[in-house]
Amino acid sequence: MSRNGPLRVQGPHERGRFTAEAWGYLVMLGGSGAVNLNDFEQLVERALVHIDGRISLADIRGIAEDVGFDDGAMDGERSQVH
Question: Is the separation of the CB atoms in 58 and 23 below 8 Å?
Fold first, then answer.
């Protein structure tokens, strides 16, 4: 995977809030081009504001899905309900 932009690292106020899996998922979204830097920051901010305590992979995937960045295609254990 090649990156065209800077690598985003956690700020002091974010350390300890995101699980490694959740942060890795965000970095993967940014690195894949699925989200731009502005969208990445909005996902981070939304998670920090709306989730108390540790932010899990399920939490961040739910937020990404709510705003249209994750359709569940990357997670084989999800089923779509019509």
Answer: no
Q: How far apart are CA 51 and CA 14, in angstroms?
A: 12
Is the distance from CB of 31 to CB of 1 less than 8 angstroms?
yes
Tokens representing 5 are 């932009």
Q: At 33, which amino acid appears?
A: G
63 pLDDT higher than 90: yes
* Positive or negative torsion for Cα 45, 14, 72, 31: positive
Structural contact between residues 62 and 70, judged by C-beta atoms closer than 8 angstroms: no
- Nearest to residue 62, comparing CAs of 74, 71, 53, 54? 71
- The structure's pTM equals 0.74
